Amino acid sequence: MSAPSIGERLARLRSAIGAPAAVGVNDVREMAGVSDDLSGRDTSLAPLFPSKASTPGPTLAERIARARGGPGAKRDHGIDALRRVTGGVPCGDDLLCVETRLPLPHMHGRTRITGDARRPLALPIRAGETLVRPAGDVLLLDTETSGLAGGAGTFAFLVGLARVEGEALVVRQYLTTRIAGEAALLAQVRAAVESAGCIVTFNGKSFDVPLLKGRFALRRETHPFEGLPHSDLLHASRRHLRDDWSDCRLRTAEERALGFHRVDDLPGAEVPEVWRRWLAFGESRDLPRVLAHNREDLVSLLALVQLLGTTEGRLPLFSTPLRGMGRETRKTAGHEVPPRVKRAVQDPQAVEVLV
């Protein structure tokens, strides 16, 4: 006698526990009204449950966004908030432009910046060499980056460009909202640099310009800085202003030479972290402070370049007026010291700088 099949054993078990009998395939076909005539029909069987390959799962970016609580959506929402608080307008893919106009004359600390786009600026290029250009041809440049060490991994997410237009200093700040915005940012930099007769930076010969050159090279593009005169005010400040200063940072030059003290300024060392939080979590809270920091850098550049171009503006900056007077007298031997210089030495709080 043959052993019962597995189907028979399952039927006995169902009967023993009072479970309903299993529904056969033919019973299902009959209830569905399916005919046994399969002529002319596709008899291939569709899988009862779709395979995993037929329903693609979330992408890696979507899984990362889900794990972080959706920062992509937060960042998209933050862009709208950032446009509202900064007044930035789209000027390319993933790029905002924030424009500020400062009518001249403009007080920057105790320094009064005057002039217009046609007045000449004396630009210190290197020791013993000064270039004279109309103020409207001079481009002030400052970058804010994802890191301070430089190298191929450092990204300029904000580039501030300023120049005198008519009787106003116009500051245009190009802020990338994603790394993909670099192409549009570099296009704006190229257009501005190619239309300038000289660029002015602070430590730009060692940091800002080499960084931008590297970013152009990574995109296999030629950079626009070749042959363009470059006035780096860090070196000029060391030569002409620094007397008993502890260092020659831009902030020190602002306080000692321009009488400008920043209020609620975001330290430069914290700028990269603000950018990283924006990329990761869409936090835009401190980005307006980054823009303000960059904008004040650019205004200080114009004030400094004008100050460095005038003897009478520099005299009150030395800790010992007589020593400063002798230093400047040697440079202008045979010329009488103007009355305005004498007044400036007697009143160091009143420094007027002319374009």
Summary keywords:
355 residues; alpha/beta; Nucleotidyltransferase, domain 5; 2 domains; seven-stranded mixed beta sheet; three-stranded mixed beta sheet; 39% helix; disordered C terminus
Topology:
Blueprint: H1 6-17, H2 25-31, H3 60-67, H4 71-86, E1 89-92, E2 95-103, E3 106-108, E4 111-113, E5 120-126, E6 129-134, E7 138-145, E8 156-165, E9 168-176, H5 182-194, E10 198-201, H6 208-218, E11 230-232, H7 233-240, H8 250-258, H9 271-281, H10 287-308, H11 311-314, H12 321-331, H13 339-346, E12 351-353
Parallel strand pairs: 4-12, 7-10, 10-11
Antiparallel strand pairs: 1-2, 2-9, 3-4, 5-6, 7-8, 8-9
Helix pairs in contact: 4-9, 7-10, 8-10
Give an overview in words.
- With 355 residues, the protein is an alpha/beta fold.
- It has helices at 6-17, 25-31, 60-67, 71-86, 182-194, 208-218, 233-240, 250-258, 271-281, 287-308, 311-314, 321-331, 339-346, and strands at residues 89-92, 95-103, 106-108, 111-113, 120-126, 129-134, 138-145, 156-165, 168-176, 198-201, 230-232, 351-353.
- The strands form three sheets. It has a seven-stranded mixed sheet, sandwiched between helices. The chain has a three-stranded mixed sheet with strand order 3-4-12, covered by helices on one side.
- β5 (120-126) and β6 form a beta hairpin.
- α7 (233-240) crosses α10 (287-308).
- The longest helix has 22 residues, at 287-308.
- It is elongated and about 120 Å long.
- The termini are far apart.
- 28% of the residues are buried.
